[in-house]
Design a protein that fits this description.
Blueprint (H helix, E strand, L loop, with lengths): L1 H9 L3 E8 L6 H12 L5 E4 L5 H6 L6 E4 L3 H9 E6 L14 E4 L23 E4 L2 H11 L6 E3 L4 H7 L2 H8 L6 E5 L5 E2 L9 E2 L12 H13 L2 E5 L16 E3 L2 H6 L4 H7 L2 E4 L4 H5 L6 E4 L3 H7 L7 H4 L4 E2 L2 H12 L6 H11 L7 H8 L20
Parallel strand pairs: 1-2, 1-4, 2-3, 4-5, 5-6, 6-7, 8-11, 8-13, 11-12, 13-14, 14-15
Antiparallel strand pairs: 9-10
Helix pairs in contact: 2-6, 6-10, 7-10
């Protein structure tokens, strides 16, 4: 990518031209940013990882914007001429950006669970500025990205705007796959890692598992029977990098992916608004899920191996999480029984953590982010100067 980096340094920028990019395409943070930009009179260009999926864009009610593959000539042209790039991951492996281009990284998770960037032995994430949910999150993000505090904007995460605004009842109806009183979502994080740029060697985070979740077929069968007896449904969304085979042969456990969500006019974060319990391990989604004030369970049989391989930012991790730490199928079924019985033992823990980890608990994060970098609009009267320092 050295040629693209050199071209980027030489190409004049259009100050109020905004390019938005996410991985995967149509990620909730990018959608919230595009919606807010469009409301302010901007015409953002959406750089897509894959061939632009206009049907999916319509299904998730994306405003009418230009969508272009990032690897096409048009995609590279739009990137090279944009005064502002807003991204969850840098769209190209460029390690230096010119002073005339503002790179706003809204990332894809709060840094309070697993380390990334410098803290994970990788390159710092190259950007002009980034976001955080709280002062504690800001401190970790400064260390991970190698940025001074005034360039880590405590604005909240735009993806959470969509979580908060989603209507719970309509979300549950859209996600319905049968008559269920209890709707659960399981979001395991990724285990096996390829060698990252700048990392000394490949490594596995914890103990990789072959299926969608770290349960064998017999254990999944037990969970499926319990769900049937208790009018429950479990939606399992494997990590996008896991390439796990879909779960088949179960009546109450469903594998879901982005096309499944889009076909129901949902995204991951609008789905989360409607669920009764989140099951995860070390995915930072649990920090965002605090905003729903719904129960969580942490199924983490390889926690010690994960601690040794990658580690945690918050230790002891068991003392931070606002839900039970589970390592066996029996424990999971016991917790689900308590949930079905209406018991919520961690409600106070969640409220305490929500106040500590979220400075803002409203749906205004995209607005605050754009205001912070000068995209107040309309663009004809408010051109962005990428050389200005956000927060000054």
């Amino acid at each position: 990518m050295w040629l693209l980096e050199a071209l980027n340094a030489l190409t004049p920028k259009v100050g109020d031209k905004v390019v938005v990019h996410s991985r995967p395409d149509l990620e909730d943070g990018a959608l919230a940013i595009v919606q807010e930009l469009s409301a302010r009179g901007y015409a953002p260009i959406l750089l897509c990882e894959q061939t632009p999926n206009r049907e999916a864009a319509s299904q998730v009610q994306l405003p009418a914007v230009v969508m272009v593959s990032k690897n096409s000539l048009r995609g590279r042209y739009h990137f090279l001429t944009a005064g502002v790039v807003i991204t969850t991951h840098n769209p190209y492996r460029i390690h230096r950006h010119p002073a005339g281009q503002l790179i706003l990284n809204i990332w894809h998770g709060e840094p309070l669970a697993k380390p990334v960037g410098i803290l994970a032995g990788e390159r710092p994430v190259n950007c002009t500025c980034t976001t955080a949910l709280s002062r504690l999150g800001q401190a970790f993000r400064c260390l991970e990205f190698g940025l001074p505090a005034h360039r880590v904007l405590v604005t909240g995460a735009p993806r959470n705007d969509r979580l908060i605004r989603a209507e719970r009842g309509s979300t549950r109806r859209a996600a319905s796959v049968g008559e269920a009183d209890l709707l659960l979502v399981w979001l395991p994080t990724f285990r096996s890692r390829a060698q990252a740029v700048g990392a000394p060697a490949p490594r596995a985070d914890g103990t990789p598992f072959a299926g969608s979740v770290p349960l064998d077929a017999d254990e999944l069968g037990r969970v499926d029977r319990w769900l049937g007896e208790n009018r429950g449904t479990l939606l399992v969304k494997p990590h996008p990098l896991a390439h796990a085979p879909p779960l088949v042969g179960y009546e109450h456990i469903w594998s879901i992916d982005l096309p499944w969500l889009w076909s129901r006019h949902l995204t991951l974060y609008t789905l989360l608004r409607g669920v009764d319990c989140l099951i995860t391990d070390v995915s930072s989604v649990w920090i965002d899920f605090l905003l729903t004030d719904r129960p969580m369970a942490f199924f983490f049989p390889d926690i010690q191996r994960y601690r040794e391989a990658r580690g945690f930012n918050l230790e002891p991790y068991e003392d931070w999480i606002p839900g039970p730490l589970l390592t066996q199928c029996d424990g999971l079924l016991d917790e689900l029984a308590l949930l079905a019985d209406g018991q919520d033992r961690f409600a106070e823990n969640r409220r305490t953590l929500k106040a500590r980890l979220h400075r803002y608990q409203d749906a205004g994060s995209a607005r605050r982010v754009l205001d912070a970098v000068g995209l107040s609009g309309p663009p004809a009267h408010s051109r962005v100067r990428a050389s200005s320092q956000p927060g000054n």
